[in-house]
Amino acid sequence: DDVKIIKLVDGLVIYQTAVLAAQIERLRYFNNSFILLSHREFEKKQHIPFLMKKMIRNIDWSKVNTEAAHTYRLMASSANQLVHIDKTILQETVAEISGITNWKFSPDKANREIWFLFRDEGMALCGFRFTGLHTIEKYEKGELHRPLAHILCLIAEPSAEDLIIDPFAGS
Fold first, then answer.
1. In whole angstroms, what is the distance from residue 57 CA to residue 51 CA?
2. What is the mean pLDDT of residues 97-102?
3. Phi then psi dihedrals of residue 63, to 5 deg
4. pLDDT at position 136, please?
5. pTM of the full structure
6. In whole angstroms, what is the distance from residue 51 CA to residue 43 CA?
7. In the prediction, which pLDDT does 74 show?
8. CA–CA separation, 114 and 58 (whole Å)
């Protein structure tokens, strides 16, 4: 009852919930969550910088706390590949965001990200990423990422009496 799936496509779940972002942030297996700020349909031939300009003008800033002193960076991907953000578009977008929010553009020391995602399905999405940045951990060679390990444990549904062997121990 707390979640309504709006759209489900390969590698993406768009959902609506009354649950606070802080609660979602505490879920170890939700390590790549965004608040959807703007979206539109587009045709592949449309120019990404043009789409970014249109999307930034339609952002619903009421969905995020713009008063908090965050640092942020901008990211863009097309068909799940990172893409370069045109310098002029970057400057305009930073000026727009910094003028509306209390946030400082800091690509190297950001604690939040604003993503522009251009999907093969013809969806252009702009989202405020609120999970995953501060939980980025360094993993040793062969070490399993914690969210994946957590999900595997949930799938296995072990009982208190089960003997569990860790195939990654000592790697």
1. 10
2. 86
3. -80, -15
4. 47
5. 0.71
6. 10
7. 92
8. 14
**Residue 25 and residue 23: Cα distance in Å, rounded?**
5
Alpha carbons 142 and 122: distance in angstroms, whole number: 37
Q: What is the dihedral of CA 43, 45, 49, 50, to 10 degrees?
A: -70
**Region 8-14 average pLDDT:** 85
Alpha carbon of 97 to those of 22, 42, 92, 106: distances in Å? 22, 23, 9, 12
Rounded to whole angstroms, the Cα distance separating 91 from 85 reads 10
Which has more confidence, 45 or 60? 60
Q: DSSP assignment of the chain, as one string? A: --EEEEEEETTEEEEEESS-HHHHHT-TT--S-EEEEEEEE--TTS-HHHHHHHHHHT--GGGS-SSS--EEEEEEEETTEE-PPPHHHHHHHHHHHHHHSS-EE-TTS-SEEEEEEE-TTSEEEEEEE-SSSTT-----TTPPPHHHHHHHHHHH---TT-----TTTT-
Q: How far apart are CA 51 and CA 66, in angstroms?
A: 23
Q: In one letter, which amino acid is 151?
A: I
Q: How confident is the model at residue 76 (pLDDT cuts 50, 70, 90)?
A: very high
